[in-house]
Every structure is written in structure tokens, then in C-alpha cells.
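Students often ask why inverse folding is considered easier than folding. One informal answer: many sequences map to the same fold, so there is more than one right answer. In these notes we will look at a single instance of the problem. The structure comes first.
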């Protein structure tokens, strides 16, 4: 097959540029060894007239630019892409993602969504909680903020408005062990690790402190993560989850195509398998 890999723009890889590029390169190399032709280009300028994408049988990418994704959706069939473009958009519109999780009963902390249409809530929320930019993925530390009182919350919301954000989410803070998980739905690949063992974009992981080693079911975690991937339609995924002292699991973040930085080689094999399916 003739395949195209699409790098994430550096703008959308804060403190993760080399790691994000490395997983795409690893997948491309696996596919080439299997006899396929693979080109790799950046999402920057992807839709200008210099690039003819019609020659590719499938495309796999880490795009985050909403305008680029919208143009690709207008020109090409969704079935050409791993992950599908609509799922990528939902993952990068935090309000849209959390609303899907609410509607599909994905286990997560109580949250409230603030948009120009009003407020949608899944339960009562008390301090401390997290304020998250609603209309895009986090590009700076302040786009996801931990707040403990009214004054802090007001300052964060004011910052959102100053940066032009039109929506935001409030999500209850949950005490427990913070873990990161990575998966490729439809394959046997699934990995998890404590957040303290990996790379941090903005340092928010320190809020939860040292892990306690609370027991939980890895099988149930994979089932929860795969369900989240299915309802959002992003088979190549990663995310963050809190495990509380009773072993309950709460997804607090979910992403299309993360860096897989601590399991790159195994992930590349699984992603290539999924693409070739």
C-alpha cells in the first residue's frame, strides 16, 4: 500500500516535539519493513496545493490543527484515516469530549461544561477542582489549572477569556494514584504506568503526590479505555486515570495518538497492525 504519515505541528506538542515525532517515525519504519511505501509530512501546510493526497491508500496522523482537519474532512473519506478525523476533533475539543463521556457513561469525575449554550453538569463539584480550556487542547500550563478557591477560579476563567476561549470545563479533583495508559483498540496492546515514571508536559502530575500503589483491575482499566476509544472513535489512544483507595477508576484525560514515549517500539508494531487491518 501507499501510505502517508502526518506529523503533529510543533505548536501542538508543548515540551513533546521529539517524542511525538519519534512514534510516527517508528510506525512508518515498521510499515516499510512490511513492504509498504510510506511518506511522512507535517500537518503544517498540508492542505496547500503542493500536496496531492489522493494517491495514498490510507493516512495515519497526529494532526491537531482544526482548520486543516476540517479541510481534510471536506476532501477525503473518513475511512482513509487512522484515527478518523471526527474523533480527533472531539478529543481536541474538551467540552465535546466530556459531553460524549457524560452521554456514554464513561466513568470520570463529576464535571460541568460552560458554553454559549449554557451549563451541562454531571454532578456536584466542590473545591478543589480543575478548570480546563474547552475549545482546544492545552497549549500552555494555564490551559489546565488546579484551583482551590473562588479567587483562583475567577483568575483562571479571566485568563481563558483574555486568550479568546469561548468555553471551559470544570472537573472535580479526585485523590488517588495518577496513572497514564496507552492502547490500540482492536489489538492486544495496552500499557499503563504511574505518571511519576514518565515525562510531564506541564508538571500537573505533582498535585496528586506520591503514588500509594492502590490495587485495581488492569483488565477493567483496558475495558474502560477501549470503551472510551470506541465512543470517541479514536482507536489509537492514550489518557490519564485516577485510581482511588477503593480501586475505582476515573478517566480525567483522553487523547488521540499520544507519544507512547515509554512503550514506543511495542506501540509502533500494534499501530502498524491496526493500520493494515
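Output (designed amino acids):
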Amino acid at each position: 500500500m501507499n501510505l502517508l504519515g502526518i506529523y503533529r505541528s510543533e505548536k501542538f506538542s508543548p515540551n513533546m516535539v521529539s517524542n511525538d515525532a519519534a512514534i510516527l517515525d517508528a510506525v512508518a519504519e515498521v510499515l516499510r519493513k512490511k513492504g509498504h511505501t510510506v511518506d511522512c509530512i507535517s500537518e503544517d501546510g498540508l492542505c496547500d496545493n503542493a500536496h496531492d493526497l489522493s494517491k495514498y491508500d490510507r493516512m495515519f496522523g497526529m494532526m491537531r490543527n482544526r482548520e486543516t482537519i476540517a479541510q481534510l474532512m471536506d476532501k477525503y473519506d473518513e475511512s482513509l484515516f487512522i484515527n478518523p478525523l471526527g474523533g480527533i476533533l472531539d478529543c481536541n475539543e474538551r467540552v465535546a469530549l466530556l459531553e460524549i463521556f457524560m452521554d456514554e457513561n464513561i466513568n470520570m469525575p463529576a464535571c460541568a461544561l460552560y458554553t454559549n449554550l449554557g451549563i451541562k453538569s454531571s454532578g456536584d463539584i466542590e473545591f478543589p477542582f480543575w478548570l480546563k480550556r474547552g475549545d482546544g487542547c492545552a497549549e500552555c500550563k494555564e490551559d489546565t489549572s488546579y484551583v482551590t478557591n473562588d479567587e483562583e477560579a475567577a483568575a483562571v476563567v479571566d485568563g481563558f477569556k483574555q486568550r479568546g476561549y469561548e468555553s471551559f470545563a470544570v472537573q472535580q479533583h479526585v485523590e488517588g494514584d495518577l496513572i497514564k495508559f496507552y492502547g490500540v483498540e482492536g489489538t492486544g496492546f495496552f500499557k499503563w504506568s504511574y505518571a511519576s515514571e514518565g515525562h510531564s508536559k506541564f508538571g500537573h502530575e505533582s498535585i496528586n503526590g506520591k503514588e500509594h500503589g492502590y490495587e485495581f483491575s488492569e483488565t477493567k482499566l483496558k475495558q474502560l479505555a477501549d470503551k472510551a476509544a470506541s465512543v470517541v472513535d479514536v482507536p489509537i489512544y492514550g489518557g490519564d486515570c485516577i485510581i482511588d483507595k477503593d480501586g475505582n477508576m476515573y478517566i480525567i484525560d483522553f487523547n488521540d495518538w499520544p507519544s507512547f514515549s515509554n512503550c514506543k517500539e511495542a506501540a509502533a508494531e500494534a499501530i502498524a497492525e491496526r493500520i493494515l487491518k
